[in-house]
Amino acid sequence: MSELRSPIGILDSGFGGLSVALAVRAAMPAEDLVFAADCAFAPWGDRGADFIDQRVHAIVDFLRSERIKALVLACNTATAVSIDTLRTELSIPVVGIEPAVFPGVRETETGVVGTLATVRTIASERYRHLSANALAWAKENRPMPVSILDCPCPGLMECVERGEFKSAHTLTLLEHYIAPLLAKGTDRLVLGCTHYPFLHEAIEAIIRKLAPEKRVELIDPAPAVAKQLARTLATRKLCAPSETAGNVRFYATGANAAREAVLNALWQQNAQLEALQ
């Protein structure tokens, strides 16, 4: 296989990373993609760093067997825990994803930015460093005080994995997490887990219910990740020829019919889910 035609590997603990895969597909339609989800061991966001790193490396080993030319960590938790190690271990480009707090602090009009993320992402040193840098930038460049309110969201990722995008349970969880942020004046809400963009409509419904007079922008970092990947491949002259459309293959640990149904609901095209051992 020509290196240019080698696929891009995309991994996540579950199907949330499909939000990134969709952005990559839109930005680079000629590229072949291999998406791998660790559904049988999800969620990662409430687990210890050693467990997460072990599972990330297991999925990366599979993707390397597919001769990928670049790796995308479509998971904030995996990025926080494993990206530095992977960049030392792999010779291919490794692109991660982080909560988009910088756009939040740049754009906020009230000075209050909320971050919805997993427990592990918010507790990570990488996120603390990111938030501190964003706030330091805001202190020098914004005419108002800016704060970032961190909200760990246990249970939300599982709602997406079950295909419960607007269930009563999902809406209850969202209201529990979002209400305190709105009460403190949040006008930019960072979706700090790749699963959360699939709850976009439900989140907007909760905002309309709780604060119909407020304008709250949701910030999804997936398009920025796709742009960064495109720049990286172009710099390394690894872009696939544009004459034909690329294909996408989907793998998951614990693959079954129910998970394939959720995959198709999220991808919104016919997709076959293959077992990843």
Automatic annotation (TrEMBL):
- Which SUPFAM superfamilies does the record match to this protein? Aspartate/glutamate racemase
Reaction catalyzed: L-glutamate = D-glutamate
Q: Part of which pathway?
A: Cell wall biogenesis; peptidoglycan biosynthesis
Give residues annotated as binding substrate: D12, S13, N76, T77, T194, H195
Pfam families associated with the record? Asp_Glu_race (PF01177)
Its Enzyme Commission number(s) read 5.1.1.3
What keywords are annotated for this sequence in UniProt? Cell shape, Cell wall biogenesis/degradation, Isomerase, Peptidoglycan synthesis
Question: GO: which molecular function terms?
Answer: glutamate racemase activity
The record's function comment reads:
Provides the (R)-glutamate required for cell wall biosynthesis.
Q: What is this protein called?
A: Glutamate racemase
